[in-house]
Specification:
The chain is an alpha/beta fold. The protein has one domain: Rossmann fold. Helices cover about 45% and strands about 20% of the residues. It has six helices and five strands, in the order βααβαβαβαβα. A five-stranded parallel β-sheet has the order 2-1-3-4-5, sandwiched between helices. Helix 4 links the parallel strand 3 and strand 4. Helix 1 crosses helix 6, helix 3 packs parallel to helix 4 and helix 4 runs parallel beside helix 5. The longest helix has 15 residues. The model has no long low-confidence stretch (mean pLDDT about 95).
Length: about 130
């Protein structure tokens, strides 16, 4: 398995927890990238074009909604799977996430095993022979 995963959260301990949840994938050749804010995330998106993003919504300067929109509609990274991972669980937030281009919406607190399973399925699907 190969691929790149971008973890975007303004809280360092959350980035670390998500990265630790995905460590098994690193052993299988997956590269884990991190960003502390939306602007940094967009720069990595342009440069690295990751297969999967775990993206917080509430961040300073640029929200996760904005980053998801940039990824899907401006940078046209249609092959990048966007997972919003946030404490905001209201219906209106989910709808806004869908409009921004998110493929999946998960709420915190999250189950590390679930994140690993989701990432594994997405990467397996992205890299299976056509």
């Amino acid at each position: 398995m190969t691929g790149k995963i971008l973890i975007v959260d303004d809280e360092a301990h959350i980035r670390l927890l998500i990265a630790q949840s995905l460590e098994d994938l690193e052993d299988r050749g997956v590269e884990i990238l991190t960003a502390a804010d939306g602007a940094e995330a967009v720069a990595i998106l342009r440069d690295q074009q990751p297969d999967l993003i775990f993206l917080d919504i509430m961040m300073p300067e640029m929200s996760g909604f904005d980053v998801a929109y940039m990824a899907k509609h401006v940078l046209e990274l249609t092959g990048t799977y966007v997972v919003l991972l946030t404490a905001k669980g209201q219906t209106v937030d989910r709808e806004q996430g869908e409009q921004a281009g998110a493929d999946l919406y998960l709420t915190k607190p999250f189950d590390p095993d679930e994140l690993l399973a989701i990432a594994g399925r997405i990467l397996d699907k992205r890299h299976e022979p056509a």
